[in-house]
Amino acid sequence: MNEMTKLTIKDFETDQEVRWCPGCGDYAVLKAVQRTLPELGTRPENIVFVSGIGCSSRFPYYVETYGFHTIHGRAPAVATGLKLANPELDVWIITGDGDALSIGGNHTMHLLRRNLDCQILLFNNEIYGLTKGQYSPTSRVGTRSPSTPFGSVDRPASPCGFALGSGARFVARGIDTHKKLPEVLKAAHAHRGSSFVEIYQNCIVYNDDVFSGFTDKANAAANQIWLVHGAPMLFDGGTKGMTLDHAALRLRVVDVADGDWAAAGVIVHDQTNKGLAQMLIELMPEEGFPVALGVIFDHPRPTFERAVVAQNAEASQGKLPDLQKLVSKGQTWQVDKEPHAL
Amino acid sequence: MASAVHDVSLEEAGSHPVPESIVVRFAGDSGDGMQLTGGQFTLSTALAGNDLATFPDFPAEIRAPQGTLFGVSAFQINFGSTAIETAGDAPDVLVAMNPAALKTNVGSLKVGGLIIADAGEFGARNLAKAGYAQSPLEDGSLARWQLLSFDISALTMEAVKPFGLGNKEALRCKNMWTLGLALWMFDRDRAPLIQWLHDKFAKAPVLADANVAALNAGHAYGETAELGGAIRQHHVAPAPVAPGLYRTVTGAESISLGLVAGTQLAGLKMFFGGYPITPASAILHHLSRLKEYGVTTFQAEDEIAAIASAIGASYAGSLGVTSSSGPGIALKGEAIGLAIMTELPLVIVNSQRGGPSTGLPTKTEQSDLYQAVYGRNGDAPMPVIAARSPADAFDCAIEAVRIATQYMTPVMLLTDGYIANAAEPWKVPDMAGYAPFPVQFQEDVPEGGFKPYARDDKLKRPWVKPGTPGLMHRIGGIEKQVDTGHINYEAANHQAMTDIRQAKVAGIADSIPDQDVCMGEAGGRLALVGWGSTFGPIHQAVRRMRARGHDVSHIHIRHIWPLPRNLGALLRGYDQVIVPEMNTGQLKTVLRDQFLVDARPLNKVSGQPFRIDEIEAAIEEALE
Ligand code: SF4
């Protein structure tokens, strides 16, 4: 491939047979990624997909780039070394709710606080698929599974809440089969720093339709709000919007008549506002709110690997590597006499 | 130590029938600066041309309650005019800065040895904390030894009075006063130390001046005070060593330097992922200052991230290195398996300490050999190298880098708390004498297409940096198909890949030297087979016994896995084989398993190194 050839989706497909269950949401995400990659302008050899363990973590085998299928929960740590060793690489982390928030929660937190430049796609299916259906750290209370036959009793973690709390500077949400997913991926890629994307992914075998309350065609319009920076927060065909209840300091749904959103008090999305992001990620259909989707928060900060590279360069300034000098450092003494000359 | 400085033959050893060597132990409260005192005394000893070995022995607590028995910190140095290989068995001189230091250390002092005690610290409270009903300085209980006690605290206060320090700061200078006295006793030059104090306290000249004054006062005290017969000035002649440039080095330093040298010889950059743990942290500290050598250091969020990031860096084309101690190595186990499966180069340094679990963080032990050789799930072979001394660790680190990069495999380098912290003179190596072993990354698509798990004649797979056009591929922890590296669960393929991984690591034996006998003959009545930091006491014990005419040899193994090809035949040439180890018999088991030899254990797990006489006794018993 020379620089002039335009890359296509075909260029990012491998010869490996894709082995997810038929109907799994992972297929749709794979397609969305393969469709997005040609538009990013990065050569395939400069892209690395790093994953942990779980159904979604098979992902790297199916993308014609470099790829590393690591061990459970550790993808962020492997990616950190990879990116520090070669900051020019375009690094994508593929993970799931168990991988990123249970066994690898510590690494996810530290990756986000350090702000390593990479994309993290967290496939949230609220279940352990690969190990055959146990409840996960994002499963709702009452989830019946082989390990919780009477329903789970512990409260779920919020992936985006975790990310924001860990210091993430880019937090977005998408849905596996939604046509806007590539747009979200592009925005994540454009952001310099750790870009955290939670993707609602349907596990057709162990947790089918867990998101249908807001993903089914019939429910989508009324239960999804797609955020656009600088645009009013409207949903349900523009008939509803979000306003800020100043007294209660929280978001509220208002009706919009004749498209006059300003009159209804609908606010404009500001993706650099962390307080607003915090309120948006907590909106839940069960409480009468739409699910916030798209780019919720995007406010770049200097990245970890750039800071490391800069400090390495600064500390090395004016010093030439000289092994002989290095081993001769410290207080030395010369012995001139021949051995046994005492 | 003999390994690095000189090898004195038996005849030479015999020609100095009374080897002039002295063992001094400085002991005090952990806040008294004993490690610093010992370190500086070591330096001036080295500068005086004596051979030496040291043993820092400090408590696990950072700031243990003052005056308590468990808060005692000690530093032992053995120096002399002949080869010194151990920190010495029983001290000749004990400097005790308080009652607790006296109580915990006096038992090991030679009968007739000298105690120097700070009488100013032997008040009722400190005596009670150490469990003394009355002052041992006055009740005659120390009659077996020579006792010299005076109020070092008061003398120090007096010496630093002109500098207007607070009480606490003034008393901090006590260690320099004591050091001054020690320098006088052993006829040492004060100048380098005074220079060092001025450098150390460059930002606080008053403190520098006060410490120098304390040092000079201690020295003058020795010179002028009428100390009676107990204390006199000794002059220990310089040891005969090969000419050249020398410096002192601790194991943590020499491993860091060796890793840097190794990566430079391989033509690579180094990525070091570490997580703080005693006694391994010093390597992270050293390397973090060597950025101009292409070193990136990363303090990770945990032990697992430390190794996982190193693996990521190796995948990117740097040499990934990680280091820890037993408990941390346990956490890294799964990731080591990943490096074995993906066949990426990696160096893992284990500074062993007493175990299991948290065990004895500041005490030394060699009990992670099983963990190094066997401690992973699955059939997961990995080369293991063990350093015998601080100076030897330099070459071992280079060797670990060579094997990792030439065979695409993780390598474990074993050291221990003793090697990491102890200092010894080191003849500065001539770096021109080290042959480079540059890494060849695969950059072109070979004929017939690229196969990430194709093998060369050493069974090494190619190393490809992401970013290389045309060679994109995927690796991971799932079993690989032979050659293609695709996921493969087939029975025959797993058998084939397991065999290949095994054969690759076993084949490393072709690139390592035959096992030598470091003292004695290749065959005979008895061989003592050691590994790691037991080198010094074993070597000295064998030397002494041979000088008395016994047929005993010393074999010390660097390559723990794979073992040298000739080792089995070599061991079978002895009537008896004894394996002294600071564990319950781990190398012994491996040797028995590999060679069906009747290797017998000699074990010690007290957190202290072997004493020479303990090993002598075992030799005596075996040869009776
Ligand atoms: S178990 Fe669920 S998540 Fe896993 S591949 Fe099957 S459908 Fe997809």
UniProtKB/TrEMBL annotation, chain A:
GO terms for molecular function: 2-oxoglutarate synthase activity; thiamine pyrophosphate binding. It comes from the Bacteria. Transmembrane segments: none annotated. Residues 53-199 form the Thiamine pyrophosphate enzyme TPP-binding domain. Keywords: Oxidoreductase. Its EC number is 1.2.7.11, 1.2.7.3. It holds the Pfam family TPP_enzyme_C. One of its GO terms (biological process) is cellular respiration. Signal peptide: none annotated. InterPro entries: 2-oxoacid:Fd_oxidoreductase, THDP-binding, TPP_enzyme_TPP-bd. This is 2-oxoglutarate ferredoxin oxidoreductase subunit beta. The lineage of its organism: Bacteria, Pseudomonadati, Pseudomonadota, Alphaproteobacteria, Sphingomonadales.
UniProtKB/TrEMBL annotation, chain B:
This is 2-oxoglutarate ferredoxin oxidoreductase subunit alpha. Transmembrane segments: none annotated. Residues 270-432 form the Pyruvate flavodoxin/ferredoxin oxidoreductase pyrimidine binding domain. Pfam families: PFOR_II (PF17147), POR (PF01558), POR_N (PF01855). The keyword Protease does not apply. It comes from the Bacteria. Residues 527-591 form the Pyruvate:ferredoxin oxidoreductase core domain. Its EC number is 1.2.7.11, 1.2.7.3. Residues 31-219 form the Pyruvate/ketoisovalerate oxidoreductase catalytic domain. Keywords: Oxidoreductase.
